[in-house]
Amino acid sequence: MAEYQIITDSTTDLSPEMIEQFGVQVVPLCYTMEGKTLHNIPGGGEMDEHTFYEKLRSGINSTTAQVNAEEFIQQFTPVLELGKDILYLAFSSGLSGTYQSAVIAQQELKEKFPDRRIEVFDTLCASMGEGLFVYHASRLQQEGKSIDEVLSWLKENVLHLCHWFTVDDLNHLKRGGRVSAATALVGTMLGIKPVLHVDNEGHLINVSKVRGRKQSLDALVQKMEETAIEPAKQTVFISHGDCLEDAQYVAEQVKSKMGVKDIRINFIGPVIGAHSGPGTVALFFLGTQR
Question: Which of 33, 42, 133, 262 has a 20 to 30 A CA-CA distance from 17?
Answer without folding.
Answer: 33
